[in-house]
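Reopening this one. Same input as before:
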Amino acid sequence: MNSHNLSPSHQKETKQVSKNTRHLTSTNSPNSPNGPNSPPRIMIVSDAWHPQVNGVVRTLNITASMLSKAGYQIELVTPNRFQTTEVPFYPEIKLAHCSIRAIEEIVKRIKPHAIHIATEGPLGMITRHFAVSNGIPFTTSYHTRFPEYLYHLLRIPPALTYSAVKWFHSASAQIMVATESVKKDLEKLGLKNIALWTRGVNTKMFYPRPNKENVLPFPRPIFLNVGRISEEKNIEVFLKLDLPGTKVVVGDGPLLTTLKNKYPNVVFTGKRHGEELASIYAASDVFAFPSKTDTFGNVILEALASGLPVAAYPVAGPIDVIGKNKVGFLNNDLQKAVLDAYFAKSSGFISQNECISFVKENYTWTKSTKQFLSNLVTFNLIKTY
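Same output, byte for byte:
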């Protein structure tokens, strides 16, 4: 794969992955499709990929990069390899025009030892069909609450889409989810073989920094939100809150222009990445997370690593990460949660060090990648092809 360069912290974690988790031992068999001692081959299929900027793409990119650096051969099957159609109002989301034959040719060429289907889109559907038709085991992951997501966008009743979710993942040998809450939700649907695949954060990129006023020269306190500016993110609930200081929103999306005009006192920065994004996190006081459709919320970890307490609804994702830990507040009244987080930080009840220590102890990409590897179901395609 063409992996992106890893930061020093990710390079260190890669060595730990290579040392401790290389367990696809079937590749060392003399009968291995590509010969003895060939690297383990993992095929990852995802409808979500660049230019999308979200937690799914970030997680897959970092996981694939770390595995590649650790010696695994990763084959990413994404819309970038095919002709695509853009989703109306979501031009960064591209739906691939892919046939079963195209997937079959990829499988025959690389002879993977494990297949992971990360999304339920066209590529995921076709790969699922191919694998089921040929008796090939595969794993899946459930990254987004699509029933709630589609209800926000198209008002499709969640009961209909939950039936589709159950059908899609029922053939999976192992379903990977980010939190216990989502695991329980899928178990209520009757799904089994559900395993945790948590997330990580780069603490060498996201950390407290000086000169806050130079980065965000606005009246304080600064209440920050980072993410896609769209209906399903529930962003307008945050914008309507009666708060002191300044609200800052980082991100792009179909509602950006409308909300900028509707809320002139809110600072909309547009997309920000890397050091610039990290500096904005560090220059803020509280992180507000109004979404109810995410299964995790990677931005929560970035905020905590930057020393910010988090305010959110008590829903899957925040309730699993924040819970009763002294790093944020959850409340069905988001304004109360935001103000509680601010006063807790300003009074010293929640400290930067507590937030940072929490993520360092619980959320690393090493742990995440180990979980992904241990959840894979391996097989030998030599009997099939």
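So the earlier flakiness isn't reproducible anymore. For the record, The chain has two domains: 8-200+365-383, 212-362.
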